[in-house]
Amino acid sequence: MSIHADTHPPMIPLLHDFTDATVLVFGGGSVGARKARRFAREATVVVVSPDFADRDFGDADLVRAAPDPDAVPTWLERHEPALVVAATDDEAVNQAVADAARDRGVLCNRADRAGARDPDSVVVPATVEEPPVTVAIATGGTAPALSKYLRQDLEDHLAGAGEMATLVGDLRAELKARGVPPERRRAIVTDVVNASGIWTALRTGTANTRQVIEDVLEAERVERGGSP
Fold first, then answer.
1. Residue 23 to residue 83: CA distance in whole angstroms
2. H-run or E-run covering 83
3. pLDDT of 140 higher than 90
4. Which of 25, 48, 96, 225 is 20 to 30 Å from 193 by CA-CA measure?
5. Are 88 and 26 in contact (CB under 8 A)?
6. Rounded CA gap, 92 and 159, in Å?
């Protein structure tokens, strides 16, 4: 998807590991709650707000406070977050959060901005997950409804992708251990990924990854003239 550079600065999608990291969320409304639930699956999340309108913040720690813009830097110093989310209904506080994050080299997600983005800002995309496969969808903040539609549409298409990823990883390791040359390994793995029958077997449960690997290894053994 091309985005007009004069309207939306180009962004590069990255995957970030937040294990053992802290995410600091300013804002206790529905948006702040949604962000807290999303990040609480991987990180320690602290939500700062005078009120909490949503009941579900995941496993986040809720701190009832109403920091004014001048106090925002102190909160970042106290929690040392890897990411800070500005999700209040106060423009001044949200701007103070973005400024404090930039001053400290901390990633910042401004949930109150759609479309135009500050430099060094982070967009949290819609995701579809079939672990270990993750697909992210973003529209530059201009069309959240489209992101939601595409996410729902992709859910069916990704069925079995997690099992396929596990299968391919294990197969590559076993082929390498058996001394199969790199070019041949790539060809075998490509054939497996493109095999509709294997996708069907994984999706329907008629075969598991170990069974498929054994079948592929046996076929390769026969191809090489029966050598072990």
1. 5
2. strand 83-86
3. no
4. 225
5. yes
6. 44
Predicted pLDDT of residue 207:
84
Please give the span between the terminal C-alpha atoms of the chain, in angstroms, as a whole number: 48
Give burial (CB, 10 Å; 0-12/13-18/19+) of 101: buried
Q: Find, among 157, 175, 163, 170, the residue nearest to 208 by Cα.
A: 163
Tell me the torsion sign for CA atoms 88, 91, 96, 97.
positive
CA distance 178 to 53: 58
Beta-sheet pairing, 107-110 with 83-86: parallel
Report domain 1-124's class: alpha beta
In this structure, what token pair is assigned to residue 43?
A: 């990180």
pLDDT of 107: 93
For 47-86, the pLDDT digits (tens) are 999 999 878 999 999 999 998 999 999 999 999 999 999 9
